[in-house]
Specification:
Elements lengths: L2 E5 L2 E4 L4 E8 L7 E7 L6 E6 L6 E3 L7 E6 L4 E6 L8 E8 L12 E2 L3 E6 L1
Amino acid sequence: QLQLAESGGGLVQSGGSLMLSCAASGFTLKNVNIGWFRQAPGKEREGVSCISSSGRSIDYQDSVKGRFTISRDNAKTVVYLQMNSLRPEDTAVYYCAARTGSSGCYYSGMQYWGQGTLVTVSS
């Protein structure tokens, strides 16, 4: 059974940084495409960043480009989301999700989801 677990959320001041981790178990991470998503209160869930199983394909939502960095360590079966220059509008529950199959960067068709980690950015 493929399982994902996010960690690293918390409360940070505007302009601060956090690193989120998505730990995988029950499968070989190197064969899985990962996406980071977030859902703010009263808003729909949105894709933030994604990375292909090979690591060669990466994408960012426009609002986080230049501030967030996604990376993966297949040996440790962890995918990271480094978040710098955080803004109050980044406040949300952040989820990682996995999609098996062809290597690529995806925001849809995710098959497995973590429980989420809350990020709160104060102004």
